[in-house]
Amino acid sequence: MGFNVFLTEDVVRFIDSVSIKAQAKIERSIQLLREFGHLLPMPHSKQLVGSKKLKELRVILGKNIYRLFYFHYREKTYIVTSGYIKKSPKTNKKEIEKALSIMNRILEQADEKNKIN
């Protein structure tokens, strides 16, 4: 029954920038999202406070904490917008704003495309 998960160029660049071990762990989290979608529980996924649409994939490897932001696009499809290495207990507001900006751009482009068709 799986779910479709698409990665933006931004998140692909982020994944490429981390260690091979971190890449493997991130890929595993993305695979879990493909398998479980909205049913993916903590500690793997968490709704972001202050956003109804944006969620985060949570990846821990040793002392490093990785966060990848994603949202439900339509039906059985999720889009992973961006990621970063978390360095403090709070989620970085700048990174949230970046993810929201990417999400909003994708949704606006989809709306424009639907208006044309």
Structure description:
This protein is α+β, with helices and mostly antiparallel strands and 117 residues long. The mean pLDDT is 93. It has one domain (4-116): RelE-like (YaeB-like fold, 2-Layer Sandwich), CATH 3.30.2310. A 5-stranded mixed sheet has the order 1-5-4-3-2. The chain has 3 helices and 5 strands, in the order E-H-H-E-E-E-E-H.
Question: Keyphrases for this structure?
Answer:
YaeB-like fold; 117 residues
Rounded average pLDDT: 93
Which series of helices and strands comes N to C?
EHHEEEEH
Q: Strand arrangement, largest sheet?
A: 1-5-4-3-2
Distance between the termini: 29 Å
Total number of beta strands: 5
* Basic shape: globular
The CATH homologous superfamily is termed RelE-like
Percent of residues in beta strands: 25-35%
- Helix percent reads 40-55%
Q: Can you summarize the main beta sheet?
A: 5 strands, mixed
- Unreliable segments (pLDDT under 50, ≥5 consecutive)? none
Question: How many domains would you count in the coordinates?
Answer: 1
Quick rundown:
The protein has 117 residues and is α+β, with helices and mostly antiparallel strands.
How do the strands and helices of this protein lay out in sequence?
Blueprint: E1 4-7, H1 9-17, H2 20-36, E2 45-47, E3 54-61, E4 64-74, E5 77-86, H3 93-116
Parallel strand pairs: 1-5
Antiparallel strand pairs: 2-3, 3-4, 4-5
